[in-house]
Amino acid sequence: MKLDKYTVGKRYGKALFELAEEGSETDAVYQSLIILDGVFDEIPDLGNILTDVRLTGDEKEAIMNRLLQNFDGLVKNFLKVVFDYNRIDDVPFMIEEFNRRYDIKNKIAEGTITTAVAITPEKKAEIEAKVAEVFGYQKALLKPLIDESILGGVVVEANHRVLDGSLASQLAGLRAALGK
């Protein structure tokens, strides 16, 4: 039975996190995975290329060696194993699982902040501090999004929790209370 990408990602990401913890390298591995994630963002088909049956083993090896030049230690060895098991196309899911575990360990809430108009960096930092306090985390990292349909206010989604302070939801609540 072939495992889906999500399951593979969870297993490999968990294994990498546990190895990093064992060697007290979680912060260093996390930083390396940020770089690796950036590579996969820049070249979205990299995983497919490295698992493509139309390429020879030597061609794949040359591409992989080029990628490995950017990493060392645990991350480099991890990538070699993932490549050897032909799972390189699942790396983004592995990174996601590692990051999830890293955030839990370090009490970091990641998510989005949606507003009707752009907010200043100062206001974003203020909201992040408040969200961290409300959710009981050390820190909140929120990606700003703009959605004019919320009319005003703020909607924060972090770690599967939502704080909806949008004008649109307040108006909907008012309509419901008035029976309209």
TrEMBL record:
Coiled coil: none
Family label: Belongs to the ATPase delta chain family.
HAMAP family the record matches: ATP_synth_delta_bact (MF_01416)
Keywords, comma-separated and alphabetical: ATP synthesis, Cell membrane, CF(1), Hydrogen ion transport, Ion transport, Membrane, Transport
Record membrane topology: Peripheral membrane protein
Function field: This protein is part of the stalk that links CF(0) to CF(1). It either transmits conformational changes from CF(0) to CF(1) or is implicated in proton conduction. F(1)F(0) ATP synthase produces ATP from ADP in the presence of a proton or sodium gradient. F-type ATPases consist of two structural domains, F(1) containing the extramembraneous catalytic core and F(0) containing the membrane proton channel, linked together by a central stalk and a peripheral stalk. During catalysis, ATP synthesis in the catalytic domain of F(1) is coupled via a rotary mechanism of the central stalk subunits to proton translocation.
Subcellular locations according to the entry: Cell membrane; Membrane
Pfam families documented for this protein: OSCP
Keyword Glycoprotein: no
Domain of life, source organism: Bacteria
Protein name: ATP synthase subunit delta
NCBIfam families given in the database record: ATP_synt_delta
Organism annotation: Enterococcus alishanensis
